[in-house]
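notes to self, project folder thing:

trying the whole complex as one job this time. last attempt i did each chain seperately and stitching them together was a nightmare. three parts in total, labels are on each line so i dont mix them up again. if this works i'll redo the older ones the same way
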Amino acid sequence: MPGDKSGIDDLAEKIYLFIQGKCLWQFFPREWDRKANIEGIMGMAAELIVNPKLPQPETLVDRYYYVEAKLLVSDIKKEFPQVLELGEDEKRELMERVKQKLLEVMVLKSINPELRLSSY
Amino acid sequence: MGVVLVEKPREGVINPMYNCQPCGAQYVCIGIKDCIPLVHGGQGCCTFVRLLFAQHYKENFSIASTSLHEDAAVFGGMKKIEEAVKVLVRRHPNLRVIPIITTCSTETIGDDVEGVIRKLKRTFLEKEFPDREVYLIPIHTPSYSGSHVKGYDTAMFSLVAYLAEKSEPNGKVNVFTGWMNPGDIREIKHILAEMGVDYILLMDIEGFDSPIMPDRSGFATGNTTVEDIRDTANSTASIVLCKYEGFKAAEFLEKRFGVPAVVTPTPIGIRNTDMFLKNLRRITGRRIPDSLVEERGRAIDAMVDLAHMFLADKRVAIYGDPDLVIGLAQFCVECEMKPVLLLFGDDASKHYAKDERLVELESKVEYDIEVVMNADFWELERRIKDGLKLDLILGHSKGRYVSIDYGIPMVRVGFPTFDRAGLWRYPVVGYNGAIWLAETIANTIFEDMERRKDREWILNVW
Amino acid sequence: MPFVLFKCDEAIPEREKHCYVKAPGEDVHEYLPAANIATIPGSLTERGCSYCGAKLVIGGAIKDCIQMIHGPVGCAYNTWHTKRYLSDNDNFQLKHVCSTDMKEVHIVYGGMKRLEKAIKEAFEAYPNIKRMIVYLTCPTALIGDDIDRVAKKVMRELGDVDIFCVSCPGFAGVSQSKGHHEFNMEWMRGKVGEYEPEITSPYTVNLIGEYNIQGDGFVFEDYMRRMGIQVIGHFTGNGSYDMLRGMHRAKLNVVICARSAGYIANELKRRYGIPRLDIDPWGFEYVAEGIRKIGAFFGIEDRAEKLIAEETAKWKPKLDWYRKRLAGKKICIWTGGPRLWHWVKAFEDELGMRVVAMSCKFGHPDDFEKAISRGSEGTIYIDDGNELEFFEVIEMVKPDLIYTGPRVGDLVKKLHIPYLNGHGEHNGPYMGFEGFVNMARDMYNAIYSPLWELAKEDIRNDEWMEELEEEDGGEESGADFSGMESGEVGAEG
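result (full assembly):
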């Protein structure tokens, strides 16, 4: 059920799996840019999901996050319409959980030995 | 008037005509049954040769690599040979021969291949597989020496020198074919059968033309066995069809075991096939049968139908393996064509220039034949740019863009011929090869006449 | 156990860590096949070498420069006529290759003089070409030839030429991947920023890791043109040497092959702040998504939507026709690396197929993260698969089709399994909307070929005669074929 904690956990897991199966930005080759991408895009997505009129950022890199986030949010709304029923704080929390899960799987617990190489 | 020898005036190569030694060695070795050649070098030296073979045959050939990486380049790659041999022997229970083919990198490093082989026999094969004989045969083919032609010759020599063993006379003839296609091998077998000659074929690659079978058992494979090669020491004689690809092995058998080596001109065209039969007659005492006389007559008939009407005076450029080029040039002369440009692509061409077949050719023609030594495709292309008139190109597919871009009809011959379907199925040797060549050349010229609307109407009634 | 040791690998148990079967609920931080590590000698690897990665994959696709391979002639010969990358420069890049044709004397005394002469000769032979790439190979690396020094000298002397040198001896690294890396990093270090391209649009991109195989890149160049976007560096399909030196002027890097060219995108981001957008160019949904993102980046969403609508209207009905016939078919993807993850979901989601096994030659761990995240449970994932493993996998999964290269393809046809060229493509282009239809068409033609039924049939089997007799109801046959039953006729010797 939207609103209760286990509902958000469940939804976060589903969205995480959806991202896993689709988005290439979570797989960037090194720890730093993988982290930057996940934080940048998920951060932007959390903003966009509550404020669809968020203006396009100035710098090219921020604009890139914005674009990825925008398409992700649109996908999430389409695939998981129950998100629309959530309140603003719940939406933020949901996106935060997805972000944490992605950081956990793709960065913190990653067993990819090339992730921690010092150069490209 | 005669044969004019020139050297490529440049140091580098622009559009190569010849490959490097390890390729030739690999081609020899895939002709052996129950054999996986092991290329000692970087992976590309094996992977891209396999790709080349696959391009030509649309078949897969198993060739292994020692997968030389940086550590081996620094500390030597002998351990890699050890590992590779162990993996191959353990994983392939029917494997009997592993030729170890060196490359530029491992020759530069100076790996002691013979030493590793001795060690492997003692510490691995005898211990782990006491009941199984697996032959590890060193073949030294640094890529910076000679070309695939020399690589072929060297590999054949190394295999024969390693395996040949004197026992009882077998009454057979060793037939060293040189680098040929399955269609050629089939034709040679046919001639030998008609002559009633018992033989050992080096290598029997007819099986490269392999079927798709209902029980999924059809795979491309060579069919010369270890026993066959061992038995070459006991044959009546060796006959060498390509002087530059196999003579070294035959010469070894002559010196070491007293098996006489007979070099016959590559049997392309009527006269050369005649010589092949006559040499077989001389070696074995077998008479030339009526059936082959009839085949010969059919070939001459086919050539007569075409020669003065369509082929006469056509100016031809020929490139490829040396014996093939010379044989084709002789064939052209038989068909009244003018082989005005011959190109040999490696630094052994000084030997080719002195080849008695070229000397003989010179005595037969009343025009210049330019022979370019150490050539590349730029030598061909440059001459065409500078105004050389050619009616036909004979050679392998690597020269295809010269034909395409300059609109010169070309008949693909030799190896590789990846841009035409199944050519390796047809012979260029023997009387049947002469028929195929004459008619394929004619049909190619006909298509060109039609495309260019150049007297194409003549074909209405002919 | 998620990792599997194939029967054929019992002698090389270290292969186990390269072969993985995905179980329900597993994450990529639990199991990941070992990848991009040393090849096991003698394992019949399909891997190529570093030189191949640099020359054959990347440098060789550039349309307006001379390829000079500093080594024995085979390196040039064997990587010539093995690719289908096109260009609008009369395919100069397909037609020509140069070699210093190193001989023993040069190995002993050094090959730099030889290289210098060969470079000058080549520029003389092609007076309209002023750019060149020089590749270092195994032996010339071992003897320590300094190709950079030679290149600089010639550039100084000739004045109007530019030469790029890449050190990619075949023994470096474990596969062609090392050569990709070297080329990327060297190009970034030595060439990017040297040239100021003419800017013709406010919207500029580099297309990175796209090699214009059978015109794949032409499809994308066309999409960009229709959206009013200028492609500055096409790295490297149909790529121009000088434009690739001007890559720093693009506002966005659109990355297609992240494996072979992700490096330069990363460096362009680090050095010039140009963001890296990875897209999937195969499959309608993926392509549409990629175009949407590019459009959104430049604020030209309307143009993107117009393009997507036009292309979808044109090609979707055709794709639907094939989808109906391909749904449920089992497929293997045994290619280089990235195509595993680019293709798996496009095949499964858009065509209803099931990808049952994937193997890559030169993938890295991140390629497996992607392939496994996108791939199905129960699917087999293999790093650096070899012949014997392929045979075993075929027995396990019984595929209807295999996307792989010519060598393995020529092997599997003997097992009555159709193959399609997953590298050079059968009849491409494969990218973009039309490309995915071409892919579906090739798959349909291969799977439904009448030849496979014929191949399976053993005409020696006499069941058909029994059937005939049953049909005849035991009536006496007019002819006596009894002499032909013993198998004498047509029996093999």
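what i see at first glance: DSSP finds four helices and no strands in chain A.
need to look closer tmrw
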